[in-house]
Design goal:
single chain, alpha+beta, about 20% helix, five-stranded mixed sheet
């Protein structure tokens, strides 16, 4: 009996061992990639990261990837068009244009401010508002379908001058490619010292600054520092070897071939003349002197130089209506008071009550009425109403 019982022990041990092996194998099979029901394992990104890192050694750094309609980092602005969809709610899907005030009107929610927010932030806000009062666990998607809020203008000697919209961080070389490059050089290649003009108004200001980029360094030498990043509302001018540019309130702004002795008067004529808002009295000529940009006050007989940039400003005005001797529109001037505005309009009539004058002023798209005193300051485009006296 002892012998028989002892002979059974190995058999039981073997069975237990087999059961353990089978159990372990069953648990491990999915991790070894043998369980086809779960599908193949997804590759990790370690190899991709390593390859990218190695490719970057000894080469120029890659430009940052710009946002597109599928990413969430783009900052939305006025005039952009965004597409919004809510899963299982087809009535909420649509394209929404951002107003000049920076908002959209979305069903159920109403007015929603989106300007200055990323696509991700808009998605989170919609999800929160819809889930709060209307839908259970809404699944919201937001994408930019038209990038219209951030634009630059390129003029001058390029294949396709005009307005281009920025949907990602964009450098000067990228824009030149979109504009089909420099179109003509009067039989010459890009020469050393030939410069592109970048006119830019810093955020929150109306003062235009002008900087220059050496096109030879950018296009021939390939210098990274010449390939500057552009900003919204930049105006880029690519000059010919001998040309000038005129921008502002003219009918056909752009670049024109330079000729010896050409005057400001003829330059305005080549640009089709002034617009209704243009004034040659305040024309400014931006000119390079000793490596610096200087502003030259332009007169009709001012003789231009190669690569001059002429800026024709807009004439601001105000209006006086009602009981004045000469109602109408008048040129605006800084620090203009109500008293001086009435003098410019010929003074009040005998029936007028000038002390009861009202200023109508447009603010945020709405007309606001302001009770004015004689020392009240007038702003451009104000309308002054001088009423009748009831005494």
């Amino acid at each position: 009996m002892t012998t028989g019982s002892a002979s059974l022990l190995p058999s039981l041990s073997n069975r237990v061992a087999c059961w353990l092996v089978l159990a372990i194998a069953t648990l491990c099979l999915p991790n070894w990639g043998w369980a086809t029901e779960q599908g193949p394992l997804q590759p990790t990104h370690s190899s991709q990261t390593e390859t990218t890192s190695q490719a970057g050694k000894g080469s120029r750094p890659a430009l940052p990837a710009g946002p597109d309609a599928s990413t969430t980092t783009y900052i939305v602005g006025p005039e952009d068009v965004i597409t919004i969809a809510v899963y299982d709610n087809p009535d909420l899907k649509g394209e929404y244009t951002v107003s000049t005030d920076g908002d959209i009107i979305f069903p159920l929610i109403g007015q929603l401010e989106v300007s200055g927010k990323t696509v991700a932030a808009i998605k989170d806000e919609l999800t929160r508002l819809l889930g709060k009062d209307y839908l259970f666990n809404p699944i919201v998607s937001v994408a930019v379908s038209k990038y219209l809020s951030k634009k630059v203008k390129i003029l001058g000697n390029v294949g396709k001058p005009g307005v281009y919209y920025l949907d990602r961080p964009t450098r000067l070389f990228d824009l030149l490619i979109k504009a089909e490059g420099i179109s003509k050089q009067l039989g010459k290649t890009v020469t050393s010292g030939q410069k592109a003009q970048i006119m830019r108004a810093p955020p929150g200001t109306k003062k235009i600054t002008t900087s220059y980029v050496d096109l030879h360094q950018l296009l021939v030498e390939g210098k990274e520092e010449a390939n500057i990043y552009l900003q919204p509302d930049d105006v880029i001018y690519i000059p010919d070897t001998r040309s000038f540019q005129i921008i502002g309130e003219v009918k056909n702004s752009g670049s024109f071939p330079f000729e010896e002795g050409i005057t400001l008067f003829k330059a305005i004529a080549l640009a089709g003349g002034l617009t209704e808002k243009g004034s040659s009295d305040n024309a400014i000529i931006k000119r390079m002197r000793d490596g610096r940009v200087t502003d030259v006050k332009g007169a009709m007989d001012t003789v231009l130089q190669p690569d001059d940039t002429i800026f024709i400003p807009e004439v601001h005005s105000f209006h006086v209506v009602g009981e004045v001797k000469n109602p109408g529109a008048f040129p605006y001037e800084p620090r203009l008071t109500l008293m001086k505005a009435l003098v410019l309009a010929g003074g009040a009539t005998k029936k007028a009550a000038p002390k009861n004058s009202v200023i109508k002023r447009v603010k945020n798209g709405k007309v606001k009425k302001i009770e004015a005193a004689m020392d009240s300051l007038i702003l451009p485009e104000d309308v002054i109403e001088v009423p009748l006296s009831f005494w």
